[in-house]
Amino acid sequence: MAVPKFKSERDMRDSRAQSRRPSHAEDINLRDILQEIQKLAERQEEHQREAQLKLDKQAYQQKELHQEMLEMKKEIKEDIGFLKREMEKSHRDINELKVENIKIIKSQGKLQKKLDGLEFKNEKLEKMQEKMELNEKEFQLRFRNIQEEANENLRKIIVKLVSDLLKQDPELIDNGIDQVYRIQTNFSRRNRAHRDVIIHFVKKRTRDEILMSNNRNPMYFKEKKIIVLKEFPQAILNRRRKYFFLTDELKRQKIRFRWERSEGIMVTWKGEKHWLTSEEKAKDFFQKLKQDKKENVPIPPSPPSVKRKKPKRARHISPKDSDLKVKLNPTASGTSDVGDDNEEESEEREDEDIESEEEDKMEEENVPRAPSGAEGTDYGPQE
Length: 383
Description:
The chain is of the alpha+beta class. The chain has a domain at 34-132. The chain has twelve helices and ten strands. The protein has a five-stranded antiparallel sheet. The protein has a three-stranded antiparallel sheet with strand order 7-8-9, with helices on one face. Strands 4-5 form a two-stranded antiparallel ribbon. β8 (265-269) and β9 form a beta hairpin. The longest helix has 108 residues, at 30-137. It starts with 8 loop residues before the first helix and ends in a 7-residue tail after the last strand.
C-alpha cells in the first residue's frame, strides 16, 4: 500500500517564493515610502480643497438662483395681481359696454323706426311730386325740328302753326298758350341741331286736340316735318328704359302697345291684352314672343270692324295738299285717337299707327332714346 508523500515547509516556501513577484525593488527603503505617503496626503488635501471650492461655488450659485427665484416669484405675484386688476377693470368695462350697447340697440331701433317712417314719407312725397309733375306735363307739348332764326318770335310761329292745324282763330290760340320757350338737350348740343320748343297750354283739351290733329295731318315748318312729343317726368322715363328691349321687339314685329301711366306697358297680342307692369313680366312675355317667332305660328286676323277703314295718307302729299284735303274732308281733323277708349276706332287706326311707328323709329336713330322730360309718339302708338 502506497503512502502519500507530503511536502515539507521548505519545499512549500520555495515554491511560493518562486511563484510570487517582489512588489518593490530591493533598493527602496522606508524613507521613500513615507515620502510617497506624504505626497498622496498632499494630493488628497488638494483634491479636498478643490472639492470644497466647487461646493462653495455651487452653494453660492444655488443661493443666487434661490434669490433670483424669489425675485421672479415676487414679480410673478405682482404681475398676476396687476393682471387680476386689469381683468376686473376689463370686466367692468365690458359690462358697461354691454349696457351701452343695449342702449344703442334701443336707440338704433327707434332711429330705424324713424328712418322707415321718413322713407315712407319720402316715397309718398316722391309719388306726390311725380304725380304733380305728371299733371303739369299733361299741359305741355314738345315740338321738334322747328328751325331757329335770329331774333325769332317763337310764340308767333307756334300760334300760327297751331291755328293752321286746328283751323281756329290765332287770337284764341294765343290766349290758350301760357308759355313758349326753347330747351337745350344733349342731343342738340352734340349734333348742333335745332333746340326743341316746349309749349305750356292753359287747357289740357288744347294739347289733346293738337295731338289728334297732328296724328292725321302732321305739321310742317319750312318743308320739315314737326315731331310732336308728349312730356313726362324724368322718373317715369327712367322706369320705361327697363322695357326698351321689349318695345324694340314689339316694333319689329309690328305689335301694338301702349305705355301705362306710371309703369309698364299694355300689349295687344293675338287679340288679347297683356298688362306688363314689372320687368319680370316683360322678360317672360319677351320669351313668349321669341318662342312664337321660332314656331312661326300665324297670328289670327283681327275681327272686321263695322266702320269702313279710311285710306292711307300718301307720303308724297305736301302740306298744302294736306290742307286742301282737310278743306275737302273737314271731318278728318275732328277724329281723335288720344284718350279715346273706342276699340273700333282704334282698329281703324292700326295701319296708320304702324306707319307712324316706322317713321318714328327712323327718328329715334338720330334722336336720343329718352330726352330730358320728353316722351311721346317715338315710343309706340298712342291710343
